[in-house]
Amino acid sequence: MGRTAQMALQHAPPALSNPSRTLGSLSVRICLAALVVLVLPYSVRGATSFSPDISGLWWNPDESGWGVNLIQQGSTIFATFFVYGADGRPSWFTASDMRGPSAPGEPMVFSGKLYESTGPAFSSSFDPNAVVRREVGNATFEYLSLNEGTLTYSVNGVPVTKQIRRQTWALNDITGHFIVNRVLRGQNCDPATPVIEQLGVMEVVRGPDDAVHILNRPIAPYAALSCGYSGTYSQDGRMGTIRGGHTCGNMTSGDFVLSEVEVSPQGFSAKLTQTFMGCTRSGTFGGPRATVPATSN
Questions:
Q1: Distance separating alpha carbons of residues 154 and 235, to the nearest angstrom
Q2: d(CA 288, CA 265)
Q3: d(CA 151, CA 112)
Q4: Helix (H, G, I), strand (E, B) or coil at 135
Q5: Which site in 13, 86, 249, 251 is 20 to 30 Å from 122, CA atoms measured?
Q6: Is it true that the peptide bond before 208 is cis, omega within 30 degrees of 0?
Q7: What angle do CA 259, 264, 269 make, to 5 degrees?
Q8: What angle do CA 137, 51, 113 make, to 5 degrees?
Q9: What is the pLDDT of residues 28-54, one digit of tens each?
Q10: What is the DSSP letter of 189?
Q11: Rounded Cα–Cα distance for residues 211 and 255 (Å)
Q12: Farthest CA pair distance, the chain
């Protein structure tokens, strides 16, 4: 199930505030300094370099009470099912080797053998040698979109097909200061080759109730990069999406979508699509945090 909140994005230099880390209303203002800085490497949480990370808890919201955990490493998924047998008792099924695409352009379909496991009681001393695994069928997950997929599996010859989506139980805190670059490729416009833009310091703060004073000091000749964005934040599972419109100092304006939005202690990452004057550009948007806590784990 998705969660939404209003937000606004705006270019500006680093702010002196320390944005609130609490959740609740995620009305935020993202401020980007229009000064050129070196963008340092940062941690991107995708499982592969060419596809989204499927990892998360997936469910069917019309069938609350069962679900499947899908954890992706490389092009392999480890799936754990929490479902029930014909007698209504919990059943323990796993598919630990669901292989998927290994190159861009291949179908996002993951398949592997499904196993039933039994073992020692949780209340006793656990003996791994007492675990019994039995192959009961196969499992396939087809990734349809960022938040939707089809799960097909069979247990002892009984087929099951379910439409599932990422489950959301809490909004991520996307606030902070980040050093941002933007890499975009044009569609139906020039240049057709990727363009790398170093945007400077991006600040994500709560607002308007948590408004922060911004001292705007764009440095020539990069003042034209100063842009304002406003849109709506939604979230499915751990993935965020921001949709809205943007207006820049060079008088360009249009729509934008930031999808696959994720924030970690290391940085901010997202996929960006934006349009203006009939031109659509898409690519990546993000960078490392601009601040380092006094202590970190």
A1: 31
A2: 9
A3: 12
A4: strand
A5: 86
A6: yes
A7: 30
A8: 10
A9: 444 433 333 333 334 445 566 667 899
A10: S
A11: 24
A12: 72
217-238: burial string, b at 16+ Cβ within 10 Å, e else: ebeeebeebbbbbbbebbbbbb
Distance from first CA to last CA of the chain, Å, rounded?
32
Question: How many Cα atoms occupy the beta-carbon half-sphere of 84 within 13 Å?
Answer: 8
Pairwise CA distance, residues 279 & 12, whole Å: 25
Report how far apart, in Å, the C-alpha atoms of 81 and of each of 25, 143, 163, 215 are.
33, 17, 14, 52
Q: Which pTM value belongs to this model?
A: 0.77
d(CA 297, CA 253): 42
> In angstroms, rounded to a whole number, what is the distance separating the alpha carbons of residues 146 and 234?
13
- The closest alpha carbon to 162, from 294, 279, 45, 61, belongs to 61
Residue 167 and residue 198: Cα distance in Å, rounded? 34
Q: Quote the distance between the C-alpha of residue 200 and its chain's center.
A: 22
Q: How many CB atoms neighbour CB 145 within 10 A?
A: 10
For residue 112, what is the DSSP state?
A: E
- CA dihedral angle for residue 77, residue 82, residue 87, residue 89, rounded to 10 degrees: 130
Calpha distance 94→137 (Å, rounded): 11
Structure tokens at 156: 């002892």
Give per-residue pLDDT as tens, 60-113: 999 999 999 999 999 999 999 999 999 999 999 999 999 998 888 888 999 999
CA distance 73 to 168: 21
What are the tokens at 221?
């000749």
Judge whether 245 and 253 are in contact, CB under 8 Å. yes
Neighbouring C-beta atoms of residue 292, cutoff 10 Å? 9
φ, ψ at 18 (rounded to 5°): -115, 100
Select from 114, 110, 130 the least CA-distant residue to 122.
130
